[in-house]
Each structure stands twice: as structure tokens, then as C-alpha cells.
Design goal:
Layout: E1 2-4, E2 7-13, E3 23-27, E4 37-44, E5 50-56, H1 60-66, E6 75-80, H2 86-89, E7 93-99, H3 106-112, E8 117-124, E9 140-145, E10 152-153, E11 167-171, H4 174-187, E12 190-194
Parallel strand pairs: 7-8, 7-11, 8-9, 9-10, 11-12
Antiparallel strand pairs: 1-2, 2-5, 3-4, 3-6, 4-5
């Protein structure tokens, strides 16, 4: 389902229970492109029988994924990666900082963190997506858009104050994440990031 211009949500039947911040390698084609596509877990249903993926169409692989219809078959490998340490976040004041399609894993992350005060800081260029369903799990959602069409006009790092939090979990564009890292270092606030990288296998062998 296309939920925003160029942003798609896909639900896949699979019984594997993923941790927040993990990803799967996806493939829906036979030959080209050669590499599978790594997509983070957006949500897992209460029974652990369906996995939601939220992704942006940015190239040939994700464009092919966006063509899938209900009941089509897809190959998946996962869950992969370390994911976030949910236990460390428990009982703390936590900030979830994201930019663009980096918002994808935030839904499941906010859902899994327990007994904490959670604030979300989500930055976008113009279109806002993926945050509405997060609101029931968090205390506050702060939004910025570069063109000022919604929320703060500018970058999300302009309204994020790391000194107010015990722990920061971050996913988004690399330039944004390293800005967040430097801000947290200055205020001595612990931070974890989830990076997006091109990869061949998803297992670390490459």
C-alpha cells in the first residue's frame, strides 16, 4: 500500500519474532538486481504472525517491491542485525530521534519499550508519515519539516535537547545521526544509532 508519495507499507506473513531495530533481507525477483534489499522491521503483530515493512522507493529493488500485490510470494531472510537493547531503555527518559524513512523502525521500537517516558523527534523534508501510529506509545511527538509545511521549520536537531534524556536511540540519514552523536557527546547522554548500509548478505560475511 502506498501511504505517501513514494512511501510504501508491506505486510508479510512470517512467524519469526523480530527485535526492535532488526531488519530482513527481501527479494521478489529472479535475476536482476543481484542483491537482496535490507528493510527494517516497522511492526510485528500481537500474534507474531505478520511483519510490517515501511520503505521508500529509491532504486530498482524497492521499485520492484512496490509492485507486489496481495497474495504474491516474496523471499525473506531474517531477522538480522543486533536490534536495540530494549532492557537498557526500560524505566528511563528516552528520546527516539529519526529523519525521513529512518522513522520506519520507530513504531516497533516505541511499542516494545516499557515503563519509560518516550519522546519522539521526527524530521522530514516535507511529507510527514509513519508517526501517527506511534503516538499511543509515547508521551510526545515533535516534528520538523525542511519547508515548514508541518511542525518546526528546519532540521529536527534544532529542537532536540539531549541533556533532557537518559538515553537516545536514533535512526535516519547518516549526516543527521552523526550530528545527534556529537550533540549527545557534548551533553554526556548515551546514544545508540541504527545505520543503513548497502550489503550483500545481511549476515556480516561481506
Amino acid at each position: 500500500e502506498e501511504i505517501q508519495n513514494g512511501i510504501y507499507k508491506m505486510v508479510v506473513e512470517d512467524k519469526n519474532e523480530a527485535k526492535a531495530g532488526q531488519f530482513y533481507m527481501l527479494r521478489s525477483w529472479d535475476n536482476e538486481p543481484i542483491l537482496w534489499r535490507p528493510i527494517s522491521v516497522h511492526n510485528v503483530d500481537e500474534k507474531g504472525e505478520n511483519i510490517e515493512f515501511l520503505y521508500a522507493v529509491v532504486g530498482q529493488g524497492t521499485e520492484l517491491l512496490s509492485r507486489l500485490k496481495k497474495e504474491d510470494k516474496i523471499s525473506i531472510v531474517g531477522p538480522l542485525g543486533n536490534g536495540f537493547d530494549i532492557e537498557e531503555a526500560s524505566g528511563k527518559k528516552v528520546a527516539l530521534v529519526t529523519g525521513g524513512i529512518g522513522v520506519a523502525p520507530i513504531h516497533y521500537l516505541a511499542k516494545k519499550i516499557k515503563n519509560s517516558q518516550i519522546d519522539v523527534f521526527a524530521g522530514f523534508r516535507h511529507d510527514v508519515y509513519g508517526v501517527e501510529e506511534v503516538k499511543k506509545y509515547v508521551n510526545l511527538v515533535n516534528i520538523s519539516t525542511e519547508d515548514g509545511s508541518y511542525g518546526h521549520k528546519g532540521y529536527i536537531t534544532e529542537i532536540f535537547e539531549p541533556e533532557k534524556y537518559d538515553l537516545v536511540l536514533c535512526c535516519g540519514p547518516e549526516i543527521m545521526m552523526y550530528k545527534v552523536i556529537n550533540m549527545c557527546r557534548e551533553k554526556n547522554t548515551k546514544v545508540y544509532i541504527s545505520e543503513e548500509k548497502k550489503m550483500a548478505c545481511g549476515l556480516g560475511a561481506c
